[in-house]
Each structure stands twice: as C-alpha cells, then as structure tokens.
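FAQ: What does the model actually see?

It sees only this:
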Amino acid sequence: MNRLTTPFAALALLIASFSTAASSFEDRKPVTVCFVRHAETAASTRTGGDPDLSEKGRERADCLARLLSKAGVTHLYASQAMRTRQTLAPLAAALALEVEVIGAQEGERQVQAVKSLPPGSVAVVAGHSNTVPSMVAALGGEIADLVESERYGSMFDHDSYDRLILVTLPVGEAQAQAIELRYGPRREAPPEPVK
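And it is asked to produce this:
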C-alpha cells in the first residue's frame, strides 16, 4: 500500500466513525413534550359547549407563544375543541407550524403520537383539565396537586389554567421525567368564604 493512501484511508475511517457516532448520538436524543390545559374561555365549558377563548385566555395563549417560540418546537397537537386550538394558534403562527387535531376522547392515540416522534422532537399538546393528567400518567410522568372526579379521575382544578407540564421521554428503559412550570398571569385565589 502506498504511503499516501494509508493516511487518507485512516482519515476516511475516522470520518466514517465520527459520522456513525454522530448519528448514534442523534438517535439517543429524548423527545420533549409540553402539556398545557387550554387557556381561559369566554363561557363555561361545564355544559359541553365549545366557547372561544376570553380576552384573558388570548393573553395566556400569547404568553405561551412567547415562552415556547424559541424552544425548538417541532410538533403541535390539540383536541377538536376550539379552545385548545386557539390556545396554540399564536405559537403555530410564530413557528409556521400546523396544529394536528386529535380528539379529546382519543388519549391513547395522542400518547402513541408523541411516543412515535423522532428523537430530538419537541411537541406541545393543548388538552383539557382531565386529559392532560391522564396523558402525562400514560407516558410515565407524575403531577402533584390534582383533584379527584368520579367521572374523570385525577384532573386539574377547574379554575387552573397556568400549569405547563414538561415531560422528557428518554430513549431506552429510563423513566420519563416530568416537571411543572407556571406561565402567563398568576391564577387568582378564590375568595375566602364569608363566615
């Protein structure tokens, strides 16, 4: 073998091994999922209606967009409800991303959608007071300070809109990690009962 070919062959082998290592590193990047409940609505949702966001809710949606617009978001998901789609609308506009709609009753489909995202993906899911906790639990995360409902199980307090649950889905057998953040205007405490 010629003396010139040996260094080039070694260099080619070195570059190939770095390329393989780099792609192997890319395959090990976790998927990050930000779960939020829809922002405040202009009318009650307890009767099964589909109201638009209130002014306060639009402000919260804008806060979410400012918070996550530089976070490397690659995927947006919302339920079929207008309020979840409107919560993500400012972020979708800022990132030029489409919001994929998965029905609120299709929690397992939503969980599978985020589990199947490519390594390194960052998704934002806008759900409901009852669907966000169940999806986080299905991914292996835990949320504190939930209320119990006979109909829905563990859920956010109905007046809680500022909770953002960040779930990291590691590659392999490691457990998912969940942390909770608060965003937007601070939740007002309910008035004290008159005695």
